[in-house]
Amino acid sequence: MSVVVVLGGVNMDFIVESSTIAAPGETREGSRFYTTPGGKGANQAVAAARNLDNRIPVEMAGLLGDDRYSDEMRRYLELSGVGTKFLGSVQDEHCGTAVILIDGDGENSVNAVYGANKLVDQEVASSVDEILDERGTSILLVQQEIPLDATAAAMRIARRYGSTVILDPAPTRDEADFLLPLADIVTPNQHEASELVGHEVSDRQSAHKAARTIRESGVDTAIITLGDQGVWVESDGISELVPGFEVITIASVGAGDAFNGGLAAGLALGSDLLSAVRLGVATGALCVTRSGAQESMPTRTEVEQLLATLAM
Q1: Residues with Cβ < 8 Å from 79, sequence gap 6 or more?
Q2: How confident is the model over 195-223, as pLDDT tens digits?
């Protein structure tokens, strides 16, 4: 049986919504404050699990602290259908946290303190070996919120098993280029793609150019998300824009994670690349129509309903 494995960060998000984000030295009154389970790894695990709807298991690997937020996040993952057997706890350490500011247009800025996530090492990464042992065609989904050496170790293990390795190169880190050849699929947004290739990526033409450059680093498939413009896909025999959906954006928190979780779910179910990308696009589109991080991830039924509008 296949499995989707996610190795990455687990954070508690502290979110402030305000029509205008305060500049240095300023104070602005916000309109709403709330906490929500987040972290790029955990967000992607929940997005994949809700898309898979118990058809294929999703396992989360990483580290939590021993505070009350850590307990809350573990429970939320489990209630969302994500396995946490390989999600450890570190005594006397706090969980990862992120302060997220959302402006009146739904755009967000993030300051994170990674806490227990920073202690993920190659021993934790080796749990991927145990998960993948005796499994069929599987997916490993990784990001750049935890130490890069641990991420690289897990990617190498997955490649030995013949699993598909998806790298979401976020947050951007200057020293992370060595991860690219270890990935089968790389999924930057336009800002991350700009960092990777050294020129601005803002539309389909520049995304096409950037995707070709990323593939030259040894990656089979480059997928660049362009917000409401859609997603550029560059792979063997594929070089095209998959359009987005017209939705009303409430908050963009977790949109990229939703896309990656949907993409991983589609591939795990045996969909071809473009079909899996469309599943990811629909998942991301629904995510931005609601508040929260993991809480904003749509169900399989919701995603199918949105995809059905393409045929209308």
Answers
A1: none
A2: 999 999 999 999 999 999 999 999 999 99
Residues 267-300 have pLDDT tens digits of 999 999 999 999 999 999 999 999 888 999 999 9
Please pick, among 184, 220, 257, 272, the residue that the annotation labels catalytic: 257
Query: Could you give phi then psi for residue 244, rounded to 5 degrees?
Result: -90, -175
List Cα–Cα distances, 230 to 76, 286, 293, in angstroms.
30, 14, 21
Query: What are the distances in angstroms from CA 226 to CA 199, 222, 223?
Result: 15, 13, 10
CB contact set of 205 (below 8 Å; sequence gap of 6+): none
Q: Mark whether 272 is an active-site residue.
A: no
- The whole-angstrom separation of Cα 48 and Cα 169 is 18
Domains of the chain by start residue, with CATH: 4-19+32-311 (3.40.1190.20)
Q: What is the pTM of this model?
A: 0.93
